[in-house]
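== Sequence entry ==
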Amino acid sequence: MRRWTRAALSGAAVLALTGTLLAVGAASGSPDLEPAPSSAPAVEAVDPLTQAITDLQSDLDRVPGNFRAWSELGLAYVQQARLTADPGLYARAEGAFDESLALRPQDNDTALTGKASLAAARHDFAEALALTDRSLTANAYSATTFAVRSDALTELGRYDQARTAVQQLLDLRPGVDGYTRASYAFELRGDVVRARELLEQAAREAAAPADVAFAQFYLGELAWSSGDLEGARTAYEAGLDADDGYLPLVAGRAKVLAATGDPTAAAAEYRRVVEQLPLPEFLLAYGELLEAGGQAEAAEEQYAVLRATQQLYAANGQDVDTELALFEADHGSPAAAVANAEKAYAKRPDAIFTQDAYAWALHAAGRSREALPIAQASTRLGLRSPALYYRLGTVAAAAGDTATAQAALTKALALNPAFSPLHAPKAQALLDSLR
């Protein structure tokens, strides 16, 4: 399963970036203020990130020439965009980074890496990579820059180079952000055992509740992709014990509820998630659960919100072509799916998720024979993804390659026979018909 990177860097990366930020924000407060008397009315608590942004803004009002503070503010906006699903914050982040670079155009690796993180959040991974090149020229020993660089290389499909960047990150700063990236590198190649070990190490060593939640979420995703529903549930619950506000864990728990025969509870969990964090992947999962349960009108409502959300991201500079290609192929226009997929494929032809989306779009448009070799390429690394093998099997069946279709569909259902309330039954029905 693809890492949760929509609208931002992957979770642990941003958390690592923000660790310094929050420390700066806390230090920039006003220690001379006296505590409020006990008789004062209670004040609603402000989350640390919002407080850090407020503190940084106050500092910059007093000392507008502090280029480092401008970079920290930009990073804070990138993080806040991820947590709130508000891409409108990207413009603020960009303005902060540009101000930092205007104040210090040379040797400003922090601002360059910040701009790289923003480019990655917008899914402009080629630009993110180019910016890390410039940043490393200024500071060749920045672990944060190697974190962003590894993400960009991974999303571009340059997997061997991404592993090298992850190793450089680990050499400079062993920790949660490095372990989770190394885990993903192994997961992409089908080495679930090593991927799990690294995530468990990340969870053990994590100091912040959000880091624990992030590691537990992907432990749950590993278990889910392997059909270990109880293991997935345990990991999601462990993450929520650490941070009950980490909504991807709630979505994970919803998946398990749906797979174990409680779609009503699953729908309630998804509804909680999308009301607070309306990211496309959660809207899609909720909509497909409703559609699988025969609630077509309610499902279409979620799909309409998803389309509007993608339009909002696109309007704020985020590349959503890959995501739209898959969505349109399943729930919209095959022609639109192909148009989006072609744009994504032109930019990232070697990335397995781009290949998967392009092949699926071609199949939806009736071009399954053309799609088949591209779909096969999407599974070349060995990633244990039921959805990837389901789509390969479906494309192969339509292209007349029964042997490949049976093998891929069998593998998808062996990995997790309940991988999707909407698509798993289709996979089983198609496999039965081929047999």
